[in-house]
User: What shape does this take?
Amino acid sequence: MPVKAGVVRAGSRQTKRGAAETFTGTVFQDPVVVTEAPSRMGGSVVTFTPGARTAWHAHPVGQTLYCLSGVGRICFQGEAPQVLNPGDVVNIPPNTQHWHGASPDRLFAHLALSEAGEKGEGTAWGRHVSDEEYSIAATGP
Ligand code: MN
Assistant: This one.
């Protein structure tokens, strides 16, 4: 079905729970950018409850996060986690291991935008972020 011009009503798409295989804790995903070829873009508002986070993962064409509310974390492999606040934008290069999520005691929501690879490849998921990794003191404001 080709993409139609028009308004996608808020009630027409369902909130999904983040899968236990790829998230720790309770996470909700609202699809926002749903496209068809030739576009490879996808986007969701992801809401993390306190302490919830993605598993380690990488994106074939990278990812942009736009932070909407609450207090979050972004962590790139080999670095300490960084604090995220509303209005912050995170640029994640292609094939770069990282995780993102809420701070330990606050909700956090971001818009996550990423493209599938040229052959349709999606996110490459790794292992869960351990409590030890998650609890490393975060840097930033
Ligand atoms: Mn990511």
About this structure: The domain at 23-117 is CATH 2.60.120.10 (Jelly Rolls). The radius of gyration is 15 Å. The pocket of manganese (II) ion is lined by residues 57, 59, 63, 92, 98, 100 (CB under 6 Å). The mean pLDDT is 96.
